[in-house]
Write a structure and sequence with these properties.
Elements lengths: L1 H8 L1 E3 L14 H8 L11 H6 L3 H11 L6 E3 H23 L3 H18 L6 H15 L3 H19 L7 H13 L3 H18 L5 H16 L3 H16 L6 H17 L3 H32 L8
Antiparallel strand pairs: 1-2
Helix pairs in contact: 2-5, 4-6, 5-6, 6-7, 7-8, 8-9, 9-10, 10-11, 11-12, 11-13, 12-13, 13-14
């Protein structure tokens, strides 16, 4: 009777088991593999699960129903066994990926993901890493729509974890932009670019190199979609921010003015394009003049010594 009570105490949900904190970090798969012996013998554990889902198709079919489910109630022993199995599958997937066996690697990542979502639920931080891994392999197989679904799921989990508007969302948003562009889906890419721009301004500042690079990317995306009005508004907004600075970054300002001139040309606004180009030449001319004056001042102060002294 006492043994039954003791056993019952250890039947807990995975969220309450005092496993090492490394389980909950982004690299949890790798770290817990070494903590618990990595590819140790797992005989007797998970056989029922493997028999139930032997084919890759079954994993695909079952996964959508698993993503929002709560973690299973498991014993500590089973939790550790499942963790080992998920880690082992992940390591096998990495090896297959390095060997170029993309389809097999994808299948193994799916299996690792399936176990983790059944046992830990989406609170396992490694889930996003696995979503991204599978999305990368789907992209290599040109299954772009499927890849985008996984990147989007990862973004949703990150937003839930950190909250909307958190700078931690930047890496996942950048992945969303790239997969949209690969599909020539500039409209959706633009919406993600705008989110990235807001977060980069928050994290780095409006005139940081990362922010300016995103401005340029967003302008190019607008132009590709023939959305010239939005491109112009963005460029003018960035130009105004730069010109308000005591010492604006002239290289950034010249790049923005050059892009603005191109937008004017594409919309057949020749006069505005010419005025912008005159402004560009004026800035360049002033820089050359200032450099020459500085050079002359420097040479006049470095007078040669009198040989008679």
């Amino acid at each position: 009777m006492l043994l039954k009570k003791i056993s019952a105490i250890f039947v807990l949900t995975i969220t309450t088991i005092a496993l090492p904190t490394e389980l909950m970090c982004a690299q949890g798969i790798m770290e817990t593999g070494s903590l618990y012996g990595g590819a140790s013998n797992l005989a007797g554990h998970g056989n029922a699960l493997r028999k139930s889902f032997q084919s890759f198709g079954n994993y695909r079919q079952k996964m959508p129903q698993q993503k929002n489910r709560k973690p299973r109630t498991v014993s500590r022993e089973e939790a550790i066994a499942r963790m080992k199995e998920a880690n082992q599958l992940y390591e096998q997937a990495r090896k297959q990926e390095k060997l170029g066996n993309i389809s097999k690697a994808e299948e193994l990542y799916w299996q690792s993901l399936y176990i983790r979502q059944i046992i830990w639920g989406t609170q396992d931080r490694t889930i996003v890493d696995l979503y991204n891994k599978i999305a990368e392999l789907l992209t290599k197989q040109n299954k772009l729509k499927d890849a985008q679904k996984f990147y989007r799921e990862g973004l949703a989990l990150q937003a839930k974890r950190y909250g909307p508007g958190a700078v931690e969302l930047l890496p996942q948003l950048e992945k969303m932009v790239l997969i949209c562009i690969k599909q020539n889906n500039f409209s959706e890419a633009n919406s993600y670019y705008r989110e990235i721009l807001v977060l980069q301004e928050k994290k780095y500042g409006a005139n940081a190199p990362q922010t300016i690079a995103t401005v340029n990317n967003l302008v190019n995306s607008y132009v590709s979609a023939s959305r010239y009005t939005e491109a112009e508004q963005l460029l003018n907004s960035q130009k105004d921010k730069l010109e308000k600075e005591a010492e604006p970054n002239k290289e950034q300002l010249l790049n923005i003015l050059s892009s603005l001139s191109q937008v004017y040309r594409k919309t057949e606004r020749t006069q505005e394009a010419e005025q912008t180009e005159i402004k560009i030449q004026s800035i360049i001319g002033n820089d050359i003049k200032n450099n020459n004056e500085l050079s002359n001042t420097s040479s006049s102060t470095n007078t040669p010594m009198n040989n008679n002294q």
